[in-house]
Each structure stands twice: as structure tokens, then as C-alpha cells.
Amino acid sequence: MIHHKTYYSLEVPFKEHSLLLEGPITSDALKSHEFHSGLVAFRTPEQQKKALLEIADLPEGRINVVRDGNMIVGYVTFVYPDPMERWSEGKMENLIELGAIEIAPEYRGAQVGKNLLRLSVLDDAMEDYIIITTEYYWHWDLKGSGLDVWEYRKVMEKMMNAGGLEWYATDDPEICSHPANCLMARIGKRVDTDSIQQFDQLRFQNRFMY
Predict the structure, then answer these.
(1) What is each CA distance from 159 to 47, 115, 177, in whole angstroms?
(2) What range defines the domain where residue 35 resides?
(3) What one-character DSSP code corresponds to residue 135?
(4) pTM, whole model, 2 decimals?
(5) N or C: which end of the chain has fewer CB within 10 A?
(6) Domains identified in the chain, total number
(7) Which of 169, 164, 161 is nearest to 200 (CA)?
(8) How does pLDDT run across 55-111, given as a tens digit for each residue?
């Protein structure tokens, strides 16, 4: 199921110049770029860069980035779901997770995230995959953004919509633990019915419990 990774790039205007959106990029390319100090949503920039290098080398791993010159100022990762999560239970070769998306604070608000997701689904290979993302409010930069949970959720949802991801219901306990959390997914055009049914079974595991 693992596809050859086809490289795409896109320039988007930003203030007085333009940013380069590109990917999937290799670990060698990642190593050669600086990592913006504001990319701290998940861990320190150094540790996050290390995590991205590992993902870039995975057969199914894809990392698309936003570059300002030689500086990476944003990224999105696609990888198989964490083995600890229910989404990996079906061992589906055609289900990948948008694991993280982050844009450095001063680059937000210029549709950079939306454009990065649009770039991510330009690749025809994505039509063979179900792409999921699990959104948990405790990962969101509520303080930095000045938004409340529901405003932030709306921003996240709009950004994911740009990549073709839509809201899907689920009984996953972690997602159900707060009403702002959500599962979003994009089902590629060539995904077969059996895979869609399998995905539905992963979404709802407690339907017979009362």
C-alpha cells in the first residue's frame, strides 16, 4: 500500500515576500534547515525536529513543511496511527493519521495552515487513503491565540476542511471526554467499501453497550 512519495511545492505570499510550502521532504532535507523557535506546541523545537526526522524516514511517513528561506516555520505530519490508539487496531494499510500540524505564531492568520493542507492532498496517492485526525482541546494554543475552546475548534475545523477532512462521529472515550474534541477524516476517492466499513467499526466499538 505504501506509495512512492511524489514531491510538491507551492509558493504563498506572506507580508512582503513569499513562503515555500513543500513536501513530502526527506530527513536529509529536514536536517539542512533551521527549525523556528516558536514551534513548541508538542515539545521543544530540537526534540520536535528529531521526531520529524524519524517520521520522514518511515515508509508511510510524510512531512510537508512551510519554509521562510532556510527556516522551517510550520509542518504537518502523516503517519500510521499510534499502536496505543484504537485507530491502529484494524491494522489498516490505507488508514493514515494527520498526526500534528503546527505553524509558528507569527506566521498564523495568513491561511498558511490551510494552504499546507491543500498541498498535502494534491498528491494523487492520497486518494487511496483514509486520512484521520483526532483533535483534542488540550493540544490547542488557547493562550497564544486568545480564542476560547469553541472559537479555536471552529478555526481548526475550517483549516482541516481545506484539506478535505470532515467531522465524523465516534464513541472513542478520549474524544468523547470533552465536547470540543473531535475526529475528522478524509476518505480518498479510491478507498474501497470494505475499508470504509472497517473504519466505521473502529469509530464505533461500544454501540451495543447500554
Answers:
(1) 25, 9, 23
(2) 8-202
(3) E
(4) 0.92
(5) C
(6) 1
(7) 169
(8) 999 999 999 999 999 999 999 999 999 999 999 999 999 999 999 999 999 998 789
